[in-house]
Amino acid sequence: MKAPLSRAPVRRPLAKLKSAAHRLRRAWLRESSAEFWTRYNVTGHRTFASAAESLAHFEWRSDQYIDYLRLMPVSGQDGRVVLDFGCGPGHDLVGFATASRPARLIGVDVSAPSLEQARARLALHGCGPELHQISERAPRLPLPDGSVDYIHSSGVLHHIEDPVEVFREFRRVLRPGGEVRVMVYNADSLWLHLHVAYVVRILQGMYAELPIREAFSRFTDGEECPLANVYTPGEFARVANDGGFDCEYLGAALAVAELADWPLRCDAIANPALEPEHRRWLLALEIDHRGLPTCGPTLAGHDGCFRLTPGQS
After folding, report:
1. Is 92 exposed, middle or buried (0-12, 13-18, 19+ CB in 10 A)?
2. pLDDT in tens, 191-243
3. Tell me, which fold does domain 19-310 have in CATH?
4. How many CB atoms lie under 10 A from the CB of residue 271?
5. Does residue 111 sit in helix, strand or coil?
6. Looking at the DSSP assignment, which residues form a beta bridge with residue 151?
7. What is the domain partition of the chain in residue ranges?
8. pTM for the full model?
9. Which tens digit of pLDDT belongs to each residue from 156-183?
10. Cβ-count burial 148-174 (b if 16+ within 10 Å, e if not)
C-alpha cells in the first residue's frame, strides 16, 4: 500500500532548470526505484511489538482513507489464493491475514528489506506468507500459470513505467473466474485540483512553471520518487484494456488529508490565478449524504479503485 499523502515541504525545483537536465535526472532516479521504496515505505520502517499493536495501526491507517476498505476489501477471501502485488512491509497482508482465511497468502515487492519487515510483522499474527522479491526491470511473477484467485495491488501501478506488462503477468497467473483490485492515483481528486493546483502552486509558489501532472508527481511522493503517474478513470481503463482486462471503475477513496483542504475551495475558485480547468472542476463538485465532496457518483478522492476481470480476447 502506498505511502501516506505528505504535507511536509519538499525541495523547490530550480527556477531555471533546463528540461533536458530534468529528463536526465528523472531517468537516473528511475535506476534506483527499489532503493527509493526501501528508504520510504508505508510504515516508515516501524517495528511492531505485538499483534494488537500491528492490527491497531492497520485500522488507524485504513481510517485515513474514507471508503478504502469498501473499495479494496481485505475480507471475503477465505480458502482462496491471494496475491498482494507491491506488498511493501506487509500492511495490507495484515488485513488479509486477519479479516480472511486465505488458502495461500503471497506478497511480492521490489524491496528486500520491506519484505523482511512484512515477514516479521505477519509472524506476530501467526501467519507465514509466501514472500518474493521481484525485479523492477522484469515484471515476471515467480508463480505458475493459473495459480491465483485474487490479486490486490494498492498504490503501486502508478509507480511502474509499463503497467501493461504487469497486467499481462496478472492474466497469466490468474485462474479462470479470478479478479484483480487495483488502486492508483486519481486525477479527478481534491488532491490534484485543490491541493496541488491551488495550495502548492499558488499559495506556496511551488512547481508553478510545470504542467499540473508533473507538479502532482513531483510533490505527492517527493522530489526523489522515480515515477508517480496519475490517471482519470477512463485513462486507466484504457491501460487495463491494453493489458487484456475488462475494467470497472468502483469509485475513489478520499484521504483525510484531502478533506482538510475543503474549506479552501471557495478561496481557490475566487482566485484569478487558478487555471480554468481546476476552477470548473471545483465548481462542479457536489456533497453526498455524509457531507463529503463528490465528483459525479463517487467521492472526489485521491485513491481511484478498479475491479479488473480478464477480457474475452
Report:
1. buried
2. 999 999 999 999 999 999 999 999 999 999 988 898 999 999 999 999 999 99
3. Rossmann fold (3.40.50)
4. 14
5. coil
6. 83, 180
7. 19-310
8. 0.89
9. 999 998 999 999 999 999 999 999 999 9
10. bbbbbbbbbbbbbeebeebbebbbbbb
